Amino acid sequence: MPSLFKTRGECVGSELAALKSGSKSPHSKMTKFRILLAIIAASAVAFGLLRTKHESQRQTPGKLRIVSLAPNVTEILFALDLGDQIVGVTDRCNYPPAAKEIQQASGFGTPNVEKLLMLGPDMVIACGLEKPEFTEVLWQAGIRVVNVQPTGFMASFPELFDAVRQIGEATGRSTEANKLIADMQAELNAMAARVDRIDDTQRPRVFVELEESPLMTAGAGSFIDDLIRRAGGRNIAHEISTAYPRIDPEKVIAWNPDLILVAHSDHPGEAAERLARHIGWSDVAAVRDRRVIDDIDADLLFRPGPRLVDGVKALAARLHPTHLPSPFTPHAPRPTPHARLRVSE
User: Fold this and answer.
1) Strand pairing category for 234-235 and 259-262
2) Which end of the chain is more exposed for a tag (fewer CB within 10 A), N or C?
3) pLDDT, tens only, 119-155
4) Which domains does the chain have, with CATH numbers?
5) Cβ 217 vs Cβ 245: under 8 Å
6) Strand-pair partners of 206
7) Residue 56 in this model has a pLDDT that exceeds 70
8) What would you measure as the largest C-alpha separation in the chain, in angstroms?
9) What are residue 171's phi and psi, to 5 degrees?
10) Alpha-carbon distances, residue 212 vs 248, 263, 264, 289 (angstroms)
11) 268-313: pLDDT as tens digits
């Protein structure tokens, strides 16, 4: 399964990665890299002229042509009723269903510059995983770049709300953005009123397995840490200041969590057996008592977008089935009348 979490160093475009791998020396690397940037920059100017032609031929004045470079950004755009103005998405953008009908302009964290420029966008909404050179090329082409995740990830609901607000301002949908934020905050407040009544001694200690090998979890400063707390749990890795640290499996044995939340299971229900096969893990409380959750839609829990509130509700219901027995009502973006904006040839 593709990794849900990427570092800046891993998010290199396929073109640049191929160039680097073929270089024979640092000097050769830099020379070829600069040549490639020059070629792309020249292409950007040409595509800028094509984009101007696109604008003069538009049939619907005032509509933007937006490319989203992250799945959570795509969900936010649809929630702001901008689905018909999205002309390009990533290969990981799968919600709402209409997003899968939009042309894929890039991989997640590995944008294809030439393919993106061919779409003639007015605006590209980035997620902080892109190289600075990529942004520079877009600026030279006259394309506005809005980076809603400068650090490459979001750390909390307040940061998610900031991103929604920023996208709303950039697209002229501030009213819709503020309403979306208010609705999400109201749902979180309602959940807090119920979760706050749960005594600390009844809040399970949760370990999150983001990746199995190498073992990765969510520490303090991650939105997952915030989500677990709001759902009535205690993130066992909160003591680690790094947002997404790699840890030794022996550490999990020492922590002895009450519950394990798995982010990457392809076959829900099988994670408990897999974890029991780890050396020393069979005596871990969560594994021994079969308190392993791997069947909640990962996009609800690990994608910081409008549905993250649903993730809080779903997890809270599993952590505290006696206190929060009622099923949650999914909060989905409003469908837009058009799945996509046709790209002129």
Assistant:
1) unpaired
2) C
3) 999 999 998 877 788 888 999 999 999 999 888 888 9
4) 8-180 (3.40.50.1980), 200-319 (3.40.50.1980)
5) yes
6) 235, 259
7) no
8) 68
9) -105, 5
10) 11, 10, 8, 20
11) 889 999 999 999 999 999 999 999 999 999 999 999 999 999 999 9
Closest CA to 255 of 230, 278, 283, 277: 283
Where residue 251 falls among pLDDT bands split at 50, 70, 90? very high
Amino acid at 103: Q
Give the tens place of pLDDT for each residue, 59-107: 455 799 999 999 999 999 999 999 999 999 999 999 999 999 999 988 8
Verify cis geometry, omega within 30 degrees of 0, for the bond prior to 214. yes
Whether the CB-CB separation of 302 and 314 falls below 8 Å is answered with: no
**Residue with the two structure tokens 């829900």:** 268
Supply the mean pLDDT for the chain. 81
